């Protein structure tokens, strides 16, 4: 999806620009006030930019922009939803912990593995 927006000079002598993001864009992108956005791909010709929401790991707070993020999520039948967005290191830790728990619980099972 593309939007054509106008950058305004901050008019404070800093040279900064202000880019107002309309509500329909926020809704379509799933962004909300307080989200951290990263500016990418500034092109000299045409001035096209790409904004990407920065996801911070819910455990350690690391930005997952470089690697992407993993999701541990539940949607229970009673309507309750819960989840964690995790950086690669925290996701790997969670997976290793769960796999180790599985191995311990099935240590004496016959015919498995
Ligand atoms: Zn983490």
Question: What is shown here, in short?
Answer:
Helices cover about 20% and strands about 25% of the residues.
Describe this structure in words.
- The protein is an alpha+beta fold and 113 residues long.
- The protein folds into 2 domains: 1-54, Pemi-like Protein 1, Chain: D; 58-113, no CATH class.
- The chain is built from 2 helices and 6 strands, in the order E-E-H-E-E-E-E-H.
- Strand 5 and strand 6 form a beta hairpin.
- The N and C termini lie far apart (47 Å).
- The relative contact order is 0.10.
- The protein binds zinc ion.
- Zinc ion (ZN) is lined by residues 57, 59-60, 62, 86-87, 89-90.
Question: What radius of gyration results from the CA coordinates?
Answer: 21 Å
Q: Can you give the mean pLDDT?
A: 88
Largest sheet: 2 strands, antiparallel
Q: Bound compounds, please?
A: zinc ion
Our measurement of the CA-to-CA distance between the termini, rounded to an integer number of angstroms, reads 47 Å
Proportion of strand residues: 15-25%
Number of helices: 2
Q: Class by helix and strand content?
A: alpha+beta
Which regions have little confidence, pLDDT < 50, spanning 5+ residues? none
What best-fitting shape do the alpha-carbon axes yield? Answer: elongated
Number of domains: 2
Side by side, the strands of the main sheet go: 1-2
- Range of helix content: 10-25%
- Number of extended strands: 6
Reading the helices and strands in chain order gives EEHEEEEH
């Amino acid at each position: 999806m593309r939007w054509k927006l106008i950058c305004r000079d901050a008019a404070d002598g800093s040279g900064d620009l202000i880019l107002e993001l309309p509500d329909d864009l926020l809704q379509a992108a799933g962004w909300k006030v307080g989200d951290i956005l990263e500016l990418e791909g500034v092109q000299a010709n045409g001035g096209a930019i790409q904004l990407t929401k920065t996801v911070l790991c819910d455990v350690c707070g690391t930005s997952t922009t470089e690697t992407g993020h993993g999701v541990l999520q539940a949607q229970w039948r009673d309507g309750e939803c819960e989840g964690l967005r995790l950086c690669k290191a925290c996701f790997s830790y969670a997976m290793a912990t769960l796999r180790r728990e599985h191995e311990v619980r099935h240590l004496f099972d016959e015919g498995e593995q």
